[in-house]
């Protein structure tokens, strides 16, 4: 087997692992899992690292197991949290699980004929049959309170600096996650659990439980938590999370997020968020450093992830949309856009709404632009047109231009522009 651990290491995706893990993954095909709590019906880009680790795991010949926390999602993982999370209803969880599974099916092969076909599990499948007394007697006795309190995620919440403390509900999460690993170890031949570095305590609790109950060895691998060079939170914008669901974050906005990352972040992210090999990335970085204004790394990351998460068509549309706003484009390019993407591109642009009957009164472009308030006066409009500085729907116009319904984008919009940066949107209602 190829060296999965070394692959993660050079990509900057390895934080810690239990000794012996590298050797066993080189020797044979193993099963390994990562858990996802269904707190929403979509994952966001903060989950992409975990998804990509599972993809690497499968590419290296191992069997990835996706564990959806149908049961643990009703509790909430305290790791990395300063406050207790809101509890979800069973109906909310069911909806969220379906959404997440649909997304993950895009990244992992669940239908392969090979032995390493991905597998989906829901821990509610075994917890719904677990008796509380049996769980306390058969599982709880193997993990001491001293051991649980010593975990960093618990210590932070129980420290004197914490104002909220930790409920018994969240305190049990560590033991329940440990049992998940034990269950998958004994029933699914799963010997490896992976996750973020904040999960180390929970994961190693599972390793300990397996050792205590079976006298066998299991393994843990964690990756570093992704950060941004400027100290701001990765995966966040002014509008909130960057989601993998196109209805929550459009492909265009998704593409723009990666296109606008810093050079320092791009040098790190090109290793983490793409499958390019080491020599390819070295060449990309060199080319980027020679011509940083071309933003080669940002474009490579944005292109790769937009296709991975959405589609090639969405990438092409996003590039077209970006060219419309920032580069050379034509009215034909505008005509290719759907209404949602068009409005996203020109979000925040001065906008006026007029009735169609009023729109149809105009033929003369100067009169029309004056009536909607495009510029301050007719004389300024005239001067700008004569200077070849006015465009309608990205096409330069002169005084002979005739406005009509044929000019409408998505059957309801006119995009007026002066120079390179001043846009004005007219909506025909």
And the CATH topology of the largest domain? Rossmann fold
- What's the rounded overall pLDDT mean? 89
Q: CATH class of the largest domain, please?
A: Alpha Beta
Just name the CATH architecture of the largest domain. Answer: 3-Layer(aba) Sandwich
Tell me what you see in this structure.
- It is built from 21 helices and 13 strands.
- The chain is an alpha/beta fold.
- The model has no long low-confidence stretch (mean pLDDT 89).
- The chain is elongated.
- The strands form 3 sheets. It has a 6-stranded mixed sheet with strand order 1-6-5-2-3-4, sandwiched between helices. A 5-stranded mixed sheet has the order 9-13-12-10-11. Strands 7-8 form a two-stranded antiparallel sheet.
- Helix 10 crosses helix 11, helix 12 (251-259) packs antiparallel against helix 15 and helix 12 (251-259) packs across helix 16.
- It folds into 3 domains: 4-223, HUPs (Rossmann fold); 236-345, Tyrosyl-Transfer RNA Synthetase; 351-428, RNA-binding S4 domain (Structural Genomics Hypothetical 15.5 Kd Protein In mrcA-pckA Intergenic Region, Chain A, Roll), CATH 3.10.290.10.
Any key phrases for this structure?
Tyrosyl-Transfer RNA Synthetase, 21 helices, 429 residues, alpha/beta, elongated
């Amino acid at each position: 087997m190829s060296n999965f651990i070394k692959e993660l290491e050079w990509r900057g995706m390895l934080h810690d692992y239990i000794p012996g893990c590298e050797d066993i993954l080189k020797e044979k095909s193993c099963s390994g899992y990562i858990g996802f709590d269904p707190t929403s019906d979509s994952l966001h880009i903060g989950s992409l690292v975990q998804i990509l680790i599972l993809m690497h795991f499968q590419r290296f010949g191992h069997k990835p197991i996706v564990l959806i926390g149908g049961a643990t999602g009703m509790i909430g993982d305290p790791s990395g949290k300063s406050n207790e999370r809101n509890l979800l209803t069973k109906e909310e969880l069911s909806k969220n699980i379906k959404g997440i599974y649909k997304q993950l099916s895009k990244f992992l092969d669940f239908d392969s004929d090979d032995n390493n076909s991905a597998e989906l599990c829901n821990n509610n499948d075994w917890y719904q049959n677990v008796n509380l007394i049996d769980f306390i007697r058969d599982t709880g006795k193997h993990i001491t309170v001293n051991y649980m309190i010593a975990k960093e995620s618990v210590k932070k919440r129980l420290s004197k600096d914490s104002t909220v403390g930790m409920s018994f509900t969240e305190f049990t999460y560590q033991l329940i996650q440990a049992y998940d690993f034990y269950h998958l170890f004994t029933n699914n031949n799963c010997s490896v659990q992976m996750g973020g570095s904040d999960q180390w305590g929970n994961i190693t609790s599972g390793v300990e439980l397996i050792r205590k109950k079976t006298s066998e060895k299991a393994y843990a691998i964690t990756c570093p938590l992704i950060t941004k060079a400027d100290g701001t939170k990765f995966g966040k914008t002014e509008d909130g999370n960057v989601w993998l669901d196109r209805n929550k974050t459009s492909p265009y906005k998704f593409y723009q997020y990666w296109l606008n990352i810093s050079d320092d972040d791009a040098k790190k992210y090109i290793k983490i968020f793409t499958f390019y090999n080491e020599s390819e990335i070295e060449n990309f970085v060199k080319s980027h450093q020679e011509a940083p204004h071309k933003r080669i790394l940002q474009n490579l990351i944005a292109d790769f992830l937009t296709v991975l998460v959405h589609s090639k068509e969405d990438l092409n549309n996003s590039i077209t949309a970006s060219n419309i706003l920032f580069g050379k484009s034509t009215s034909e390019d505008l005509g290719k856009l759907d209404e949602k993407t068009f409005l996203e591109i020109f979000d925040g642009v001065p906008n006026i709404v007029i009735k169609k009957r009023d729109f149809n009164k105009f033929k003369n472009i100067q009169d029309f632009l004056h009536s909607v308030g495009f510029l301050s006066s007719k004389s300024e409009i005239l001067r700008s047109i004569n200077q070849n500085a006015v465009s309608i729907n990205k096409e330069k116009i002169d005084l002979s231009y005739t406005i009509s319904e044929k000019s409408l984008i998505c059957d309801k919009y006119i995009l007026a522009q002066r120079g390179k940066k001043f846009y004005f949107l007219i909506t025909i209602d």
